[in-house]
Amino acid sequence: MYVIEQTVRESPTIQRVLREMPPEVADTFSDDQLRHLNKALGGRSWARHKIDCRGSFNFWRGSYYFVFLAGKNVRELTRLEQQTSRITLALLGTLFLVFSFAVGMLFLYLLKSALGIDLLDGISLGIWDKFRQLW
User: Fold this and answer.
1) So where does this one cross the membrane (predicted)?
2) Within this chain, do residues 82 and 107 fall inside the same structural domain, yes or no?
């Protein structure tokens, strides 16, 4: 995998425009002028991402590509997207808390068992025995 960082002169839109004009004219454009020209022609200068990983691989009888993009979301979200984002964040937060609670309880149970403390006589979950077998 690699990160693609493209200059404005490497943009397909700009390359197409510069090929159509004489080289002595094409060389007179500054990068800033080319960026504005690219934007005016519908180039994707707005789609720059902090992480832009692209690649391809062959599998069985075909060739497949993948794209992984990540960056700050600068567009306005619709109401549905905002609600979905809140619900997803709440769900992930809840899952994190439940997982953390379960790991914490497991740790406390193992600590209790290691210290030889029996809260209920004759009742054991068997987790301590399994843990001791691993070590």
Assistant:
1) 89-111
2) yes
55 and 93 co-located in one domain: no
Which range marks the domain in which residue 130 is found? 77-135
Tens of pLDDT, residues 59-92: 989 999 999 999 888 778 899 999 999 999 999 9
**Phi, psi angle pair for 43, to nearest 5°:** -65, 165
Q: Which three-class secondary structure state does DSSP give residue 13?
A: helix
Q: How many domains does the chain have?
A: 2
3-state secondary structure of 7: coil
Q: 3-class DSSP state for residue 40? A: helix
> How many CB atoms sit inside 10 A of residue 7's CB?
10
Q: Are residues 50 and 107 in the same domain?
A: no
Collapsing DSSP to helix, strand or coil, 66 comes out as: strand
* pLDDT tens column, 1-51: 444 446 788 888 888 889 999 999 989 999 889 888 887 877 555 567 888
